[in-house]
Task: structure prediction
Amino acid sequence: MTFQLFVFFLFSAVTLLSAVAVVTMRNPIYAALFLILAFFSSAATWVLLEAEFLGVVLVLVYVGAVMVLFLFVIMMLDIQIDTLREGFIRYLPVGLMVAIAMAVELILVMKSGVFNRDIPEPSPLSVSNTESLGEVLYTEYVFPFEIAAIILVVAIIAAIVLTHRRRKGVKKQDPSKQVRVRREDRVRLVKMKSEEKQ
Amino acid sequence: MDSVATFLNGFLPEGLTTLIVIMIKIVAILLPLILAVAYTTFAERKIIGYMQVRMGPNRVGPKGWLQPIADTVKLMFKEIISPTKASTIVFFIAPMLALAPALAAWSVIPFWDGGVLADVDAGLVLILAITSLDVFGIILAGWASNSKYAILSSLRVGAQVVSYEIAMGFALVGVLMAAGSMNLTDIVRAQDGGILNWFAWPLIGLLLVFFISGVAETNRAPFDVAEGESEIVAGFHIEYSGMAFALFFLAEYASMILVSTLTALLFLGGWLSPFGHVLDDIPVLGSLLGDGFHWLFIKSFFFLFCYLWFRATFPRYRYDQIMRLGWKILIPVTLVWIFGEGVAIALGWKPWL
Result:
């Protein structure tokens, strides 16, 4: 067994075990942490495939941004762990059916011959993975790429519009108003005569 | 390093030799770094002391020079307490999660031409990815402490770090457009030829955005709402004591030095001399005025000094103003700058001919 193979099996094992742990962990925070571990070790497998840019971006986007927000939401929720433990047996048959269906689908797809391609020669190390990815993205796939970008922007705007409500009675400060304040708006100089001596 | 490798190859298998050589290199980077962290805390107290017209620490050792060592020894011998009902595993993993990324990012930092542990192609993105993991240590520390002050602080940090990361990433995009590479060594080499060729001049806006968001990323004053003493006692590390607390400190200062070094590398030409190669031929002074690690040291020290200077002079930002600065000022500035830079590159204007 070469060293590369050893590393591959190590990271695959970590990915699979942590994926199982995501499902079985009772505490949702631990589940999220194992999901982070799963992402991380699959990023490592990508780096092993010499797709270092994709691996790094997986860490950057999913671990660094998405999972932070995940953890945020889970921490803010008031979760009763006891209620989560209920109903394992009751939901087991449904869960098993879904699992079996997915496994059958995966096996059918794998057997269908879509993946029976010749494995291309790995490109020499001198070719930058990032550069070749960028070249393909901005020439051959430029329209799909731009359309995907526009869809994402639309989704962002839609999410903001849907969730951003203007509530009444909120005490909010407007920094630009605060900056524009002049002395005359706040301070009133009053001239008073001094008191007569009694 | 090569001689060590050949010596070890004499009686060890090749894989093991590579491993040992890498380990030696890691130690050679991390030991000076940890020493630098210790003396940054000392420099901070001294510099802020002088700025406020007082002496700073001057009791332990000559002129107080042994103060950081005394602090370390004290922290090491203090008892580590874990709060009742805290999630113990996460509570003790959190400081390590905070420290590990701050140290791991140094693997791709070049100290001189060729003086780098891992000469990775996508070095810039790797640094961005690793530094984005910093926040987990803080969030988990806040959650695992089972304290409302700690969790409030960690929520603040989380939102702040995620927002400023975007501005930071955009500033890096400007740098890699100018350099045409994401490898840090190549980025520095692209600035060769004296002070006028540094990216600081055409990318001055991005330099400011990068450093400001770097200060916000490391949760330092004036963006240190994570530790707002008057509101949330001490922030996410309120329940930590002894060495567990020291690890958070170590992580914070290591990331400060990292951001300073990165700013020097990306915008001020790293190890390159400001005189270019004009003075290289002078017999003795030539090696001193030419390129070398000492220039990187001076430049990073300048930015590190700025960190301390900010802390001594600026009042703390209000939380909504931090968010406003990040989203409504820094990100639009970077977007406009990148667009202008793209136009300049497309038209073949001066710095990118």
Observations:
- Residues 14-51 of chain B form the longest helix (38 residues).
- The mean pLDDT of chain B is 85.
- Residues 78-352 of chain B form one domain.
- Chain B is about 65% helix and 0% strand.
